[in-house]
From TrEMBL:
Name of encoding gene: ahpD
Species assigned in the record: Streptosporangium roseum (strain ATCC 12428 / DSM 43021 / JCM 3005 / KCTC 9067 / NCIMB 10171 / NRRL 2505 / NI 9100)
Family that this chain belongs to: Belongs to the AhpD family.
HAMAP family, alphabetized: AhpD
Domain named Carboxymuconolactone decarboxylase-like: residues: 100-175
Keyword match Nuclease: no
Protein name (database record): Alkyl hydroperoxide reductase AhpD
Amino acid sequence: MSVDALKNALPAYAKDIKLNLGSVVTTSSLTDQQLWGAVLACALATKSARVIAEVSAEAAGNLSDEAFQAAKGANAIMAMNNVYYRSVHLIGDETYSTMPAKLRMTIIGNPGVDKVDFELWCLAVSAINGCGRCLESHEQVLRQSGMPREQIQEALRIAAAINAVAATLEAEAALLTV
């Protein structure tokens, strides 16, 4: 199971997605941990069983157990935070922004891996989940930590490619049942 298996499963009309997936995993300037943590966290965020199975097997060979668990944690905490903070933003009443969330999120402060890596994974998952507030927050932390915009953009490209793979493969699977 691997990223190559996902690329090979994509239909001809998704050639751009196939090429982009290959590019984001082979030409990255991110560390292996940053790259594979982002790929895994994004795969989990898509909720596609096929993408999760293929990516998790390859990610396990590229991540320590701690990093693997932290990438899963980034997806889990962002599944909660993205809903909450996106909702607070979309309501449009700034009073909600001043109210404490009262949601436990200690993993962000102690993720078990380098905080910059975890923030990068949270940013990538937030891109898939569409939370502008979380994207802004995580991008600011990454920039304050000295991460260049080009590497932050790489995490966004990973999120875009993994999400497109999942959407394409899930759509193809659904079309087979019609």
